[in-house]
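---------- Forwarded message ----------

FYI, see the OX-2 membrane glycoprotein-like record below. Original note from H. follows.
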Amino acid sequence: MEAQVTNVAKQAFFQLRQVKEGLCSQWTFQGLTMAIISILLCRVQGAILTEDKEVELGGNVTLRCILTGSFELVHPSWKKQTNRSSVNIAALSQNNTHTNEYIAEEYRSRLSFTSSAVNDTAITFWNVSISESSCYECIFNIFPTGPISNKTCLLVHDFHAFLHHHITDGLLNATCTATGFPPPAISWVGPADENNERKLENSNGTVSIISNILINTSSSHYGQELICKVRYRRQEIDYKVPRTEKGQ
């Protein structure tokens, strides 16, 4: 990290030299000056490395923040971002003899610190629910300079779908059901005499879309291809109703 910073700084100073020789504009000179100041500040204050994560509903996942640089005393903490505010969920305070750990009451049975190194903090969620799908701010309270922070986002996802169809009293009745989080979407390709859709919000935070279609077996378009298209997270999955000829 130190070597990379040094190399970037050297390149910036070389470009500044070109500016003085008239090879760049005044605006470029000002921009490079600010870049060098930013590099030096980053070197002094440190930077936080993070990574966004995805996990299936009910799984386990670890969020981690790594503070670059060398510091003697660091107190890491975590906040969950909710709407336009944030809530403290975990914190560590350290001294020369021991470490004090704080975890908010609602998380004590499903969250733990899995790394408590001075410059490396990680929290693990167990049996995640949809409510954990959010962004989290990790904060390093550095003594004596003060806090610096960054954020990492967690997406909890879940999906399953199926198609059911039968013929009763001269009507083909097809029902396509998709349940997931983020919520899926359903559309149909093919003929339809009647189509209706309803949305259910489940107790675990997922959303179910139930789409039903009816086709009269005596109509002229009966027997044409009928497809339920389910869209979920930039994917599209086809569920086809087998073709049935008239009289069958």
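H. also flagged this: The helical segments are 2-20, 26-45.
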